[in-house]
Amino acid sequence: MKQLIEQYRRLRSRHYLRQTYSGEFAFVGIGNHSINNLYPVLDYIHVSLKYICCKSENKLPLIEQKWRGVNATTCLDEILADEEVKGFLVSASPSVHSAIANKVLKSGKALFIEKPPCSSLAELQQLMDLEQSSVVVGMQKRYAPATKILTGRLKNETLLTYHMRYLTGGYPEGDSLTDLFIHPLDYVCYLFGKAEIRSCEYIQGKNGVTLLLTLRHEAVTGVLELSTAYSWQNANETLTVNTERGIYKLSQMETLTFTPKQGQVFGIPLEKVVQRSVITETLFSRNNFVPTAVNNQIYTQGYFDEIKVFVETVQKGSLFAPYSGFYSMYNTYTLIDAISKCTKK
To answer: Which of 336, 330, 323, 252 has the alpha carbon at shortest distance from 286?
Structure first.
């Protein structure tokens, strides 16, 4: 048994060491989100960054000191002209994402771009017209392990309703609709398909805004509360999906549970007649005890797999990455466009 354990450990170590990528990449952006969520993934999977591009010349020597062997520059065109660079990762200010994406796509290089990739449906359609190379839009929740489990389960369910809550603190530094609420709006479009607005209420508070929505998809109707009028310390994101068989609950991409319904006989709920223990099944839960990569929040939130998928797509020379090219964002931006018109009335 001891020999088998040692052999398994050696095989696991060799598998990790064999995972190498030969292509050269460039990163545009050096903000807080990139440093905490994206650069660690690139470092872990040993992606070769040839360039880091930012808008401040004062940061260039600091970047080259921090990342040995990386060329720091403020000139995007310089990187685009380098034939060795096969892929760009862009996580800059949302206001410049569309313009940068436009340039990268015209160069024929692969593109990973953080959300929001653009500010409107019209801009998205322009990017869709240019999408002839591999593109991954950074909607990381699509790549979360809990999402993969939930999408697989929902395929076999008869859906009734869902309830989505996305609650944060104030967001004065940007557009809450495209910068924050894009996450839950994209998530329900990804899970349930195209959405039509049945009701929309916009509430402007002293410290934030709240959107109350009722959406109708092809097979399900949902209610959403999206708000920046709560708290960042106690920020909350939950999705409850009610199906004929039972209820799914997803919390913060950290836990996914399923509670079965007890059913009815002649229209009478069994739980009113027979007292039974209801067993809630845990379909996914992050293990906070074992500090491995798959138990890290970067992994469970989907950042790890979205970057890895992009890098491997570039490595293989594939034209399209799964889950999240510009075409996959059409339903999301159609919904955002409709909400924008509702809130301006």
So the answer is: 252
